[in-house]
Amino acid sequence: MEIEPEELQIESVESRRSLESNKDMTPKKLSNLELTQGHLQTLVTEVMMDHSEPAHLTGNGLWQEGRRVLYKFVNSRSFDYVAGVIIMLNMVMIGVEAELSLHDPHVRWAAWVERAFLAVYAVELVLRLLAGGRKILHSSWFWLDFFLVAVGLLASYP
């Protein structure tokens, strides 16, 4: 089933009108609103309305307050941008290391740079685990990151 561009445009205009007409509705009322435009719009609406604090972060105390701050920090756009830049730098360094190792197979500084990136990835993983609690264990992305960091740790130390 292929969607024609005209159909997609009409659907998005109808979706926008539907959401604009319901601007004054609370998230609870919006969650009861039946959206007939498709699964994608339903998913986007659910994600946009999910501004509530996760259940594992409720409560008082210094530990819970620290986790709330950490949760906001780890799930911020800035954190994602910094993580993305670090990943890009790592990719560049892998390319540079591969190029230099063609000329000199004993590039010593490359192992230290690789360990530094691995340390940053391990810290990111621990921060996400502390912020997300047990709920993060249901995330496929967390397990992918965990696997990559674990393999990197096992490979970098004899």
Descriptive account of the structure:
- There is one protein chain.
- The protein has 158 residues and is mostly helical.
- It folds into two domains: 5-52, no CATH class; 56-156, Voltage-gated potassium channels. Chain C (Four Helix Bundle (Hemerythrin (Met), subunit A), Up-down Bundle).
- The chain is 73% helix and 0% strand.
- It contains seven helices and no strands.
- The chain has helices at 5-20, 27-32, 39-49, 62-74, 77-103, 108-132, 140-156.
- InterPro entries: Ion_trans_dom, Volt_channel_dom_sf.
Short description:
This is Ion transport domain-containing protein. The chain is mainly α.
Please state the CA-atom Rg, rounded to the nearest Å: 22 Å
CATH fold topology of the largest domain: Four Helix Bundle (Hemerythrin (Met), subunit A)
Order of helices and strands: HHHHHHH
- Proportion of residues in helical segments: over 70%
* Class from helix and strand fractions: mainly alpha
What proportion strand?
under 5%
